[in-house]
Amino acid sequence: MTDQTAAPTMPADVSPPVVTGTPREIAEGVYVIPDGRVPLVPNIGIILGARAALVVDTGFGPRSGANVRAAARELAGDRQLLVTLTHFHPEHGFGAQAFTDATLLYNRAQHEEFHQKAPGYLEQFRGFSKDAARELEGVEFVDPQIVYDEGCDVDLGGRLVQLRSRGPAHSRGDQTIFLPAERILFAGDLVEDRFLPLFPYFPPYDVDVDGQRWMEVLDELKEMQPEIVVAGHGELGGTELIDAYHTYIQWLESETLRLSGEGKTPEEIISTLTPLVFERYADWDLEPWRVATAVQSFLARTTPA
Ligand SMILES: [Zn+2]
What we know:
The chain is an alpha/beta fold. The chain is 36% helix and 19% strand. α7 packs across α8. It binds zinc ion. Residues 87, 89, 170, 189, 198 line the site of zinc ion.
């Protein structure tokens, strides 16, 4: 493996990966704790109904989970708390143990993927930085009380929330959370704002990312006509965030396959395309390994093993 394809590392001088933001009300009774573009911190959703509240994602480790739970409890009062995850990745799901007074509700594909991959991800993410290792101390894996298959509609009390299993795309168990009345979509890492799409292609322990299916999912999300898209990371936006991801994935895949067809090696393709990505997406936060893993995943899906 070249440097560009090595496992991701985090810069040492960034803010600790802890959810600390103040919930911001994006529609009546719908809150987001913004990520502040801090690595390993996701956007968190807190959705209130008349009798229950749904938390979307938990943050990275027990401390973030406890902070999210406290924020949710303050907003929800004595409503029943439900928790769900957009997908199992550590910064989205490894704080779930803090929700001792909540009901966890996951889609089955995600839950099975979590069981299979969480230990490997825990080891990998511990190695990112001292801060990451500290936040993952004491992580315990907890199982949801409720598991659904394809889709699940939840009435929080005068507020309908639609949970849908979408993977395999960014992960095998991707789940979207949609408020049909308010047209608010929590997309997880299927859509990020001004970060390159993350293809977690980490053979041998994770090769499930599927760029083709990811583009199909983005088409499905666009058809839902969301007015607000809460990205997994970065600012909130509209369907332009979905379009930007579709354009990027389609372009990078077609360029990868074109260069591969010309006989270029994976290393040559990565070193050709990375500077082009950095030029085209100069106003995004750019990490070369996100290009490399995407290219490797496209090649793996078109090259016989
Ligand atoms: Zn993710």
